Description:
With 128 residues, the chain is mainly β. The chain has one helix at residues 2-16, and strands spanning 37-42, 45-46, 51-57, 67-70, 73-76, 79-87, 90-97, 105-113, 116-117, 123-126. The strands form two sheets. Strands 2, 4, 5, 8, 9 and 10 form a six-stranded mixed sheet that branches. The termini are far apart.
Amino acid sequence: MQRYFGLILALLILGGCGSTADPLSSPPSVAIQSSPVIKRVSPTSGSTGETITIFGFGFSSEAAVNVITVGGTATTAQTYALVDPPTNGEVESLTFNVPSGASTGASGIFVTVFELTSNADIQFTVNP
């Protein structure tokens, strides 16, 4: 019995040798997530409770996974959608309500998805 096991093991090992497949030419089996990117916010200002739309890409299609920080206060997205047709890098959109407790004035707006945070060059103004 042990002799057959050794023979089968040797055949399996030798059978795998000599493969001409390039392991680097195959697509990865694990998805690679990049940081989300905000391209535009509409409108660019709002008061507590108002609905705001963020356009960009790299968001999660599960709305609640997208954590939006505005005025130093975090909230989750209410909706997620694909932009049709996509233009100027605006492939996806999120909507959210300006959270209570957000500091008034202009500040950066961020989207965080699975610990990856978006660019910091987009401004949003929280109105009093």
